Amino acid sequence: MIDPRVERLAELVVRYSLEIGEGQIVRIDGFDVAAPLALAIYREALRAGAHPYTNLTLDGLHELLVKHGSDDQLAYVSPTQWREIEALDAQVTIWSEVNTRSFGALDERRHGALIAAQRALSNRRWERIAAGELRWCGTLHPTNGHAQDADMSLRDYEAFYFAACHADTPDPAAYWRSLSATLNARARSLASVRELRILGPDTDLRVGVDGRTWIAADGKYNLPDGEVFTSPVETETEGEIRFTFPAIFSGREVEDVRLRFEGGRVVAAEASRGEAYLRELLDLDEGARVLGEVAFGLNYEIDRFTRNILLDEKIGGTMHLALGAGFAQAGGVNTSALHWDLICDLRREGEVFADGERVWKDGSFVAPLDVAVAGERA
After folding, report:
1. According to the model, what pLDDT value does residue 117 have?
2. Which pLDDT tens digit goes with each residue over 60-98?
3. Rounded CA gap, 89 and 357, in Å?
4. What's the pLDDT tens digit per position in 137-156?
5. Is 370 a member of any domain?
6. In this structure, what DSSP letter does residue 368 have?
7. HSE (CB half, 13 Å, CA atoms) of 185?
8. Please, what sign has the CA dihedral across residues 232, 237, 243, 248?
9. Whole-angstrom distance between the N-terminal and C-terminal Cα of the chain?
10. Which domain holds residue 97?
């Protein structure tokens, strides 16, 4: 028997996030462990009259490539993949893994080379998304690996995850439409801001956002979702910030990251654990030391750290900043093979000032919105 929450999530992806229509070409990507959700999305896409197909791969293939492949093989991207990304109308990525730490013992430089090669394909996807030519949504099917990372049983993790997506309710799309109004109102309230100043423990960071577009993440690109974000002005980040949550990238964990910015670039970096990997990522390319994103996490259903960035970057009351590639639709121009989200917990001792006026304190915006709040604390 299929879990009804899986069916509701699949319907939400197809009907709300991607708005898939008749005759559209839809690819469903993921590892074989994601099969239950992939099948449900495939079934729902058929019901919508689309032409879905799956791109499910075996767990462990990328690890074999990093361990045994030549430099040329690491850098290779199949021409078939390039042709497909041009032909798709919609794409679903299911980020479910059996072992979330499978890259932990592999060579960091070689892993970075694989990331860089795949990022080029991802960048083209975002170009098509920005041009309105492609719809994409990233989501997850709960697995034991993700539950273990979150220090939860699989049953508890499933309940937590589906609640964050509101797939445990009869009409999750109604919730996301309501939240969309709230998040878009919040994005509009930030539209005229020139500079943010983020204050917290070991944190005093100024981020220029003048002229950039704030975007409401309302379940169209990710499920679960719940944030407002933009791409900062690339040369206008100054100061220091400490990320007390572990920063995780491709299964590798870096603890207690501290960064200092001057002229928009990271000029000093340290971590209590994983510092070598931190420096490897910062040196990945010219754009890796520049911020590509600043965002407010506003999904208060997500109230704990799970070691999965799909959920953790939306923790209600936090902010996250991403090193590397920016978003063209937000006005970002920074390019990089890296896009690494790091989370700053501001729920107890955090303040944010917009052009000198306090707009955020201890995990909440201080000014209420004119629309009914659904999911965001005023």
Report:
1. 87
2. 898 899 999 999 999 999 999 999 999 999 999 999 999
3. 43
4. 999 999 999 999 999 999 99
5. no
6. P
7. 17
8. positive
9. 41
10. 4-170
Q: Tell if the pTM clears 0.85, that is, is over it.
A: yes
The whole-angstrom separation of Cα 265 and Cα 89 is 36
- The CB density around residue 293, as the number of other CB atoms within 10 Å, is 25
What count of other Cβ atoms lies within 10 Å of the Cβ of residue 206?
15
Looking at the structure, tell me whether residues 195 and 326 fall in a common domain: yes
Q: Which residues, listed in sequence order, are joined to residue 351 by a DSSP beta bridge?
A: 199, 361
Q: Are 196 and 67 in the same domain?
A: no
| Residues 230, 176, 133, 6, CA torsion sign | positive
Half-sphere exposure of 106 (CA within 13 A, CB side): 21
Kindly state whether residue 70 falls inside one of the protein's structural domains. Answer: yes
Amino acid at 115: I
| Block residue for tokens 């799956």 | 54
- Reading phi first (left if > 0) and then psi (alpha if -120 to 50, else beta), residue 355 is in left
CA distance 251 to 239: 28
Q: Which amino acid is residue 35, in one-letter code? A: A
| Cα atoms in the Cβ-side hemisphere of radius 13 Å centred on 299 | 32
